[in-house]
Amino acid sequence: MTAKKLFIKTYGCQMNVYDSERMAEAMGGEGYEVTDRPDDADMILLNTCHIREKAAEKVYSELGRYKGLKAARPDLKIGVAGCVAQAEGEEIMKRQPMVDLVVGPQSYHRLPELTARTHNGAKAIDTDFPEEDKFAHLKGRSKAKRAPAAFLTVQEGCDKFCAFCVVPYTRGAEVSRPADRVVAEARDLVERGVREITLLGQNVNAYHGHEGGLAGLIRALDKIDGLARIRYTTSHPNDMDEALIAAHGDCEKLMPYLHLPVQAGSDRVLKRMNRQHTAESYLRLIERLRAVRPDLHMSGDFIVGFPEETEEDFRDTLSLIEAVEYGSAFSFKYSERPGTPAAERPQVPEDEKDDRLQRLQALLTKQQRALQDAMVGREVQVLFEKPGRLPGQMVGKSEYLHAVHVESSDLAAGDLARIRIASSGPNSLKGVGLGA
Ligand code: 5AD
Ligand code: SF4
């Protein structure tokens, strides 16, 4: 039997990247091979994101592009997975009748059986939050060799209910995977060539699948021979406990880079966002982290133009950014999400949001560039991932997640090497090897 072909397009966060891998593996058991070309696929699956309106709308324009393919080959199956599937369910099929299958992020272990149900034009939909653990029901991971850096989902869902956010609705309540299963999956990844693991969760530092919390899990993973680096993302300031802060000080494999979203720097806005912390408590937390790990690079998420945000509120965000000095950051204009409390409130005009986003990003870019430029002359450790664009070049990531290019004929993907940074470009660093 010739293999059927599956094309998966992934939107949104790293958890979707992980989920897409797992869906591909689940469909591998049904005789599907992954293709990177939609036009020769037997099944097209969009793994979607609902976090902002733009992301959600992209799904429909993408589906529109496949109309011709579906008309020419009615047996082509088209599926929508991920958070838009969860949020909009059968509405998707009403808007785009060519969609055969809709599956939410908590039920994609049922993808093979759902696909089987789509014979002869029948539709299948599953947006349950099932009792069973999808991870326990997914087939074992394939044994194929892997790239050196991998994601591993350890926690899903969120109980925080920030007033702007759809995650508690699309991904459900916080659930943690048991530590022994995470450790087993990590060992398996390492056997397949992985040297760096990023633990994923919508609220990963609320992880409770180990009695020692996320710090306990990190220390358990630290013992795996061959695993060189551990990262985790994304976190809430209120879940940074003492044990996790201490791990940043003494756990060598835990990288000195922390994504800790604050969203805004004005206490008034933070309160309206239901963040349950203040700008000051966030700054004190970073002080404590930097006391144990002075070279920690901070990353964050920011929303500008949250309902009723004033120019003064916005300036508080700029001041907070000045105080932290971010090594990297993601920033967004507030986007009204149906069903969330903030969507009902007085909105900031679009041109105001544009203006604030520009000013915020100018400051963040300046900081990022300054921290990146400050790496010149320093020695870093790079995990090489793939060849660079120029011949003879390899590219990898430093401890601080900077991309580093090195010209070398004897470096291979998966190598960890000491590198001296020679220069800093717009998006990456250049370095030279220092030998073993
Ligand atoms: N509008 C804009 N940005 C949002 N985010 C979450 N919800 C919204 C929204 N409604 C951002 C937050 C979050 C990141 C993943 O996406 O900054 O941390
Ligand atoms: Fe959304 Fe993060 Fe707030 Fe949870 S903590 S509601 S995922 S922004």
From TrEMBL:
Domain TRAM: 373-435
GO terms, molecular function: tRNA-2-methylthio-N(6)-dimethylallyladenosine(37) synthase activity
Gene3D superfamilies xref list: Methylthiotransferase, N-terminal domain, tm_1862 like domain
SMART domains (alphabetical): Elp3
Protein's cellular compartments: Cytoplasm
Annotated residues for binding of [4Fe-4S] cluster 2: 158, 162, 165
Catalytic activity: N(6)-dimethylallyladenosine(37) in tRNA + (sulfur carrier)-SH + AH2 + 2 S-adenosyl-L-methionine = 2-methylsulfanyl-N(6)-dimethylallyladenosine(37) in tRNA + (sulfur carrier)-H + 5'-deoxyadenosine + L-methionine + A + S-adenosyl-L-homocysteine + 2 H(+)
EC number: 2.8.4.3
Cofactor: how bound: Binds 2 [4Fe-4S] clusters. One cluster is coordinated with 3 cysteines and an exchangeable S-adenosyl-L-methionine.
Domain of life: Bacteria
Cofactor dependency: [4Fe-4S] cluster
Domain Radical SAM core: 144-373
Pfam families: Radical_SAM, UPF0004
Residue ranges of every copy of the MTTase N-terminal domain listed in the record: 4-120
Keywords: 4Fe-4S, Cytoplasm, Iron, Iron-sulfur, Metal-binding, S-adenosyl-L-methionine, Transferase, tRNA processing
Signal peptide positions on this chain: none
Binding, [4Fe-4S] cluster 1: 13, 49, 83
Subunit-structure text: Monomer.
Function: Catalyzes the methylthiolation of N6-(dimethylallyl)adenosine (i(6)A), leading to the formation of 2-methylthio-N6-(dimethylallyl)adenosine (ms(2)i(6)A) at position 37 in tRNAs that read codons beginning with uridine.
Family affiliation: Belongs to the methylthiotransferase family. MiaB subfamily.
Protein name as it appears in the record: tRNA-2-methylthio-N(6)-dimethylallyladenosine synthase
Gene behind the chain: miaB
